[in-house]
Amino acid sequence: MAPAKAALLAGVVLLLASCVSSVALYCSAQRAAFDGMRAELSRTAAMAATVVDADAHKQFVSPEQEASPEYRRAIAPLARILTASGDMKFVYTCVLRQDKVYFILDPTPAGDSNGDGVDDKSHIMDAYPEAPQSMIETLRTGIGGSDSKVYPDRWGSFMSGYAPLRDSQGSLVGIVGVDMNATQYLKHLEHLQRALWVGFVMALLMSLGAAICVYSYQRNAQAASAERLASAEALRRAHEELRQTNNDLEERVHLRTAELLVAYNATIEGWSRALEMRDHETEGHCRRVTDLALRMGEALGMNDDELNTLRQGALLHDIGKMGIPDEILLKPGALTESEWAIMRLHPEYAVQMLQPIEFLEPALDIPRYHHEKWDGTGYPCGLSGEEIPRAARLFALVDVWDALRSDRPYRRAWSHDRVCEHIRGLAGSHFDPALTEIFLDVVGEEQTDLPLAA
């Protein structure tokens, strides 16, 4: 083959290979980022839907009702979720009437935050003529979803997720929508696009270099062995640089995946803080039990993935209490038997809230089973012994420990030795005997006997 043809062929093959590889990595990274944002939107909307009283929601038909205690009570849980989430701009509910979309609940404060002369708050039965098709589909089918692209409006660039709102009979009464700021996602795409162009330029330069090397090699086929080796080394370096470029793009994909995991965990912590803002009696409880549960996990030799799942379950262990009415959850006195029956539903509420969120499924054992007892007298399922998942058996020890070591309005915190003796006495009835011994070794490392803050 003529030297010019060989050089051209080598350059074209190397250029095509590098371009295809770079585009494939870019598309993969773009899809991962977009799918991650849509999944987060769907999870957040499903979470918000669990705190709305759908039966009460049907009663709101007029803007005049916004001054009523019922309306303020209905938007309060949505306002707490909006406050706890950093990237969420709006959360609201909508209904479909005669093929037209109308707002019902909107905790957004009245006012003009962006200076366009339009009130930011949507009022009861305000029409939404520009409602996106994905919202209308959820209103018609009752199947949750999210926008398929970023859209700009007068507040910025956003993507929205939607979840169906069903009453106690299971009938569809509307949807809950959440609008998330897409600025970080768009910046991430800009970084990926710049990396792609850099990859193209490097591929072009390397292809040109490879073509020159091949051309020189063919023209000087009879040259000294050293010259041939030098050309081969140049081609090897070109391939190595291309491999490094592809590795850099792949690393960006892994980095974005790690950033999404951090964002998910931040969302979980926001939900935990929202619950503590509602029930001040247990303020700081989630943080303390999470720290102690992780110490137990390390003592049991759990790996990083198991510890992360344990951390998520500990933070969300009482998230089901978001579904318990204020008059029961915040009652200062003793609960009646019927009120206790409602309070014991919070593990099932947690399952209803978290089960649709796929990435949290491994962490469900603690919210669902941490009130089960070793002898089978716990709730909600009456499991016994090793039927109870290990994470829930571990967390039962941690939860009781922190409750007794913390001040409450009706009693002072117990001493370290008193709590240890109490827990040791419940081994084999309330607690797993083997885990109890390990737990007492872990908490025995404490050097102070001062009561913990409530």
Write up this protein:
The protein is flat and about 95 Å long. The N and C termini lie far apart (83 Å). The chain is built from 15 helices and 6 strands. It is an alpha+beta fold and 454 residues long. Strands 1, 2, 3, 4, 5 and 6 form a 6-stranded antiparallel sheet that branches. Helix 7 crosses helix 15 (433-443). Strand 5 (156-166) and strand 6 (172-181) form a beta hairpin. Pfam families: HD_5.
Task: Summarize this structure as a short list of keywords or feature phrases.
Hypothetical protein af1432, single chain, alpha+beta, 56% helix, 6-stranded antiparallel beta sheet, 454 residues, 15 helices
Distance between the terminal alpha carbons, to the nearest Å? 83 Å
Helix share of residues? 55-70%
Q: Could you say which structural class the secondary elements and strand pairing correspond to?
A: alpha+beta
Query: What is the annotated CATH architecture of the domain at 279-443?
Result: Orthogonal Bundle
Integer-rounded radius of gyration: 29 Å
CATH homologous superfamily label of the domain at 279-443: Hypothetical protein af1432
Question: In a few lines, what is going on in this structure?
Answer:
With 454 residues, the chain is of the alpha+beta class. The protein has 15 helices and six strands. Strand 5 and strand 6 form a beta hairpin.
Give the arrangement of secondary structure elements.
Layout: H1 3-49, H2 54-57, H3 69-84, E1 88-97, E2 100-103, H4 133-141, E3 145-146, E4 151-153, E5 156-166, E6 172-181, H5 183-219, H6 225-278, H7 285-299, H8 304-315, H9 326-329, H10 337-343, H11 346-354, H12 365-369, H13 390-404, H14 416-425, H15 433-443
Antiparallel strand pairs: 1-2, 1-6, 3-5, 4-5, 5-6
Helix pairs in contact: 1-5, 1-6, 3-6, 5-6, 7-8, 7-13, 7-15
